[in-house]
């Protein structure tokens, strides 16, 4: 198998064969074929194995804590690699649509088993100036404190902000708490004259915007699908308030 990989770079090899080779470096001088098959059967796929909890992996025949830790380390390495590849030139890219925002955020939730909150900050041209990991919670919730989030945006000199969090293993349907926290953040950002453009929820079914749920359909400030248009309008609102 090692020779096959050297000759083909892994092309044409099945997932269980790749996993079998990986396991050999954690379990040398052992036949890892059966363990690889058991892991994929238990977790559903190679990606499922690399995303599984350590305790869950340890329940599989032939897997002990060191091997489970090794597999989780590989999974986290793969996740970070994917994130960095997706990041690319985000500082020169213009994030002017929900799809572009989602494409940037989605890889950051791959394999994440708890609720995780990110704050994206932008300059006047919607170039990203910061992707801030606000914090993690449990499987079912995370506590969001308004003040440090808004202060971080102010310190970074942000012209606009977008918040995002996930529902691990669940749908992207905002909860009552999601709506209440979003309203509080929206009000706090308005006081700092930094528009909060949207708060996205990511789930197994994709993503959804929260603020669109309570914005008035007749409000022209939110009628455009272009985040750049929305940014200009909300910045004008802020300037009008100061004047």
Describe this structure in words.
- It is elongated, with a radius of gyration of 22 Å.
- The termini are far apart.
- The protein has helices at 2-8, 15-26, 33-43, 46-51, 54-58, 65-87, 98-105, 146-155, 176-191, 227-242, and strands at 116-122, 128-136, 160-166, 196-203, 206-209.
- Strand 3, helix 9 (176-191) and strand 4 form a beta-alpha-beta unit.
- Strands 2-1-3-4-5 form a 5-stranded mixed β-sheet.
- It has 243 residues and is an alpha+beta fold.
- The protein is built from 10 helices and 5 strands, in the order H-H-H-H-H-H-H-E-E-H-E-H-E-E-H.
- It has 2 domains: 2-83, Orthogonal Bundle (DNA polymerase, domain 1), CATH 1.10.150; 90-242, Cytidine Deaminase, domain 2 (3-Layer(aba) Sandwich).
- The relative contact order is 0.09.
Strands, helices and their partners?
Elements: H1 2-8, H2 15-26, H3 33-43, H4 46-51, H5 54-58, H6 65-87, H7 98-105, E1 116-122, E2 128-136, H8 146-155, E3 160-166, H9 176-191, E4 196-203, E5 206-209, H10 227-242
Parallel strand pairs: 3-4
Antiparallel strand pairs: 1-2, 1-3, 4-5
Helix pairs in contact: 2-3, 8-9
């Amino acid at each position: 198998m090692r020779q096959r990989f050297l000759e083909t770079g892994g092309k044409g090899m099945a997932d269980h064969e790749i996993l079998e080779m990986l396991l050999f470096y954690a379990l040398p001088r052992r036949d890892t074929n059966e363990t690889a098959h058991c892991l994929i059967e238990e977790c559903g796929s190679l990606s499922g194995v690399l995303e599984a909890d350590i305790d869950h992996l340890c329940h599989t025949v032939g897997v002990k804590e060191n091997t489970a830790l090794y597999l989780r380390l590989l999974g986290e390495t793969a996740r970070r690699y994917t994130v960095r590849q997706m990041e690319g030139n985000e500082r020169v890219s213009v994030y002017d649509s929900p799809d572009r925002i989602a494409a940037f955020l989605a890889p950051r939730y791959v394999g994440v088993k708890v609720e995780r909150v990110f704050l994206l900050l932008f300059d006047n041209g919607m170039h990203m100036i910061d992707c801030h990991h606000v914090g993690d919670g449990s499987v079912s919730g995370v506590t969001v404190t308004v003040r440090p989030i808004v202060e971080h945006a102010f310190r970074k000199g942000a012209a606009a902000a977008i918040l995002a969090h996930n529902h691990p293993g669940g749908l992207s349907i905002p909860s009552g708490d999601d709506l209440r926290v979003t309203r509080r953040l929206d009000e706090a950002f308005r006081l700092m004259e930094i528009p909060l453009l949207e708060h996205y929820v990511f789930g197994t079914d994709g993503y959804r915007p929260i603020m669109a749920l309570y914005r008035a359909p007749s409000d022209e400030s939110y009628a455009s699908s272009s985040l750049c248009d929305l940014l200009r309008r909300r910045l004008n609102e802020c300037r009008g308030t100061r004047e």
